[in-house]
Design a protein that fits this description.
- This protein is mainly alpha-helical and 219 residues long.
- The chain is 65% helix and 9% strand.
- A two-stranded antiparallel sheet has the order 1-2. It has a two-stranded antiparallel ribbon with strand order 3-4.
- The longest helix is centred in the last third of the chain and has 23 residues.
- The protein is globular and about 50 Å long.
- It starts with a helix and ends with a strand.
- It binds zinc ion.
- Zinc ion (ZN) binds next to α3 and α6.
């Protein structure tokens, strides 16, 4: 799942407006922000499947127990929420961020083929395989994304022109990345996947920039 994770980050701003949109983007994508680092370090492994039947299944996740096992997700979510709590002393926001990090695994569980480990070293792999149907995936993810945008726009308003352009610029950027990953050729090698994956951090910085230029609406 890709734009569906952003949808959760956008909608969270409506549910609990205190954390920055950048912090929310970091939380919902946290597993995918760690993954390219572990790939480039050679700790986790992926292979390209040029003949995949579904455009969502061009990558075969050979192993990613540190970034994408259920147990490590709980560890990352707890670390993430713990650091936020230490910095802000806000239990409600910290709890919401914990759920955002964990939501990544839940959404991946619905979409991935059974390749998600429950724990590092364990042999059980899970996943319900929504990705087998590209049409269903695009419909569900797009509906989530639209709902996320709607809720975010109800929760905040632009302080200035930058607040409008930065927000819509990000939406276009994320959609272009989504469409090109679907329609474009499969990535050439694992290094390229890793370096492209690190671009995810750009959306976090972008989220902080948007947040600085928008205010929370009166609820
Ligand atoms: Zn993921």
């Amino acid at each position: 799942m890709f734009i569906g994770h952003f949808a959760v980050g956008l909608a969270s701003k409506k549910a609990e407006p205190k954390p920055s949109l950048g912090t929310y983007f970091m939380a919902v994508s946290f597993l995918d922000l760690l993954w390219p680092i572990f790939l480039l370090l050679g700790v986790e492994h992926v292979e390209v499947v040029p003949t995949a039947a579904s455009p969502f299944e061009k990558l075969n996740f050979i192993d990613y127990p540190l970034s994408h096992s259920l147990l490590m997700t709980i560890v990352w979510a707890t670390l993430f929420a713990g650091v936020y709590w230490m910095l802000r002393r806000d239990g409600r926001s910290a709890a919401w961020l914990w759920m955002c990090v964990a939501s990544h695994w839940v959404l991946d569980y619905f979409t991935h083929r059974p390749d998600l480990p429950l724990m590092p070293g364990g042999s059980a792999l899970v996943g319900l395989g929504l990705w087998n149907s590209a049409t269903a995936t695009v419909i569900i993810e797009s509906a989530m994304f639209i709902a996320g945008i709607y809720l975010y726009l109800r929760a905040t308003k632009a302080k200035n022109k930058t607040g409008t352009f930065a927000f819509w610029g990000l939406i276009v950027f994320v959609l272009l990345a989504y469409v090109s990953s679907l329609l474009g050729p499969p990535p050439s090698d694992v290094k390229t996947i890793g370096w492209f994956g690190l671009l995810g951090w750009l959306t976090v910085v972008w989220g902080y920039w948007i947040n600085k230029n928008r205010v929370v609406s009166e609820q």
